[in-house]
């Protein structure tokens, strides 16, 4: 994952005090306000995408890395699923496949951007989301979403490198590229999550075996400590594949934790193993304490708001790092809601609720969003890019997922925009998912999420003790 300088950075050099300019003051207990906020920001974001000049189909502006375009499309899918608004479905169908490539591996030969293992991985996860939503390509000549995800999985297997560190994916795909000697938890975490989700979706043990192998390698290499109650659940950035693989980069970002949380939750459901329960619990507990921790209190200390701890307070987060909240919220939401027919308490309720509210206050009524949500105001001095906007949308969708209940997990074959099923989910206002009132019902003909449920009851119990 890399960062590139935004053309807007020079315009934002002078600091300004946060000001409230037509905030999106959402009510987490009212679905209409959540959907309206998401629609406002989505419209602004899609306009940013379609109005860029020169326009590249399926890609964000050139200062954004390749993986961030995948996050953009994943957010479009989530938006359609949880708001019932199919406005952007045709754009997704047309433009997503523009970046599939001739070998259906998300490595288009005409790409002007550098493509790394984490880049293709986020495209594969987006394809996996489409498969779980039961979507079929409208154009029958396009490959299925499941085949796209499995193609990347197979490529990852072929790139698993035992010549250094006894395994692991390298960040870079080719040896001539700077960064080839780095084995990162972003690429390996994506491989882990993809394997776990493929295992849940297909029931094929090959995938879950690989998920176990990847996690074991991550742990043995010293990149995570989530094996026992004494472990902290941290996920470090990666390790240099030279010098005996002892040089660990101990920086940490929310996206790294996100992939391992979601993957571990999926593996716990699939295997019912206490080992995976412990791992999911510790990883989620670390995320709760680190990215929503006490140092993130705002106002009177009663609200905890998500922060990209490693860079946000310093004001030096890159474009890539600003995408982390998007990944974190999506992973947490999926780990919470994918529980077929099971009512469970929600994970990190206060932090998720307050972060969603703070996101509303940090976005203008024109759909522009600041990155630092703890300001509780839209700050025009901050950037308002794709990472900021997709993160805000995912924060609001997290509330809708938790309140609307469990998804329909039957293996579906439909190109209809998916929607959540009504009822059956966690409810409450102060702690677990808020009670959301709706003026309409989900589309009854749509389907959502083929795959196994994610049982996180014990994870939730642990996390509630943290709050």
Automatic annotation (TrEMBL):
Matching Gene3D superfamilies: 1.50.10.20
Catalytically driven reaction(s): Random hydrolysis of (1->6)-alpha-D-mannosidic linkages in unbranched (1->6)-mannans
Signal peptide stretch: 1-22
Record GO terms (molecular function): mannan endo-1,6-alpha-mannosidase activity
Protein EC: 3.2.1.101
GO biological process, one term: carbohydrate catabolic process
Region span, Disordered: 408-443
Keywords noted in UniProt: Glycoprotein, Glycosidase, Hydrolase, Signal
Biased composition (Low complexity): 410-421
Record-annotated membrane-spanning stretches: none
Family: Belongs to the glycosyl hydrolase 76 family.
UniProt-listed PANTHER family: MANNAN ENDO-1,6-ALPHA-MANNOSIDASE, MANNAN ENDO-1,6-ALPHA-MANNOSIDASE DCW1
Protein name, as recorded: Mannan endo-1,6-alpha-mannosidase
Gene expressing this chain: DCW1_1
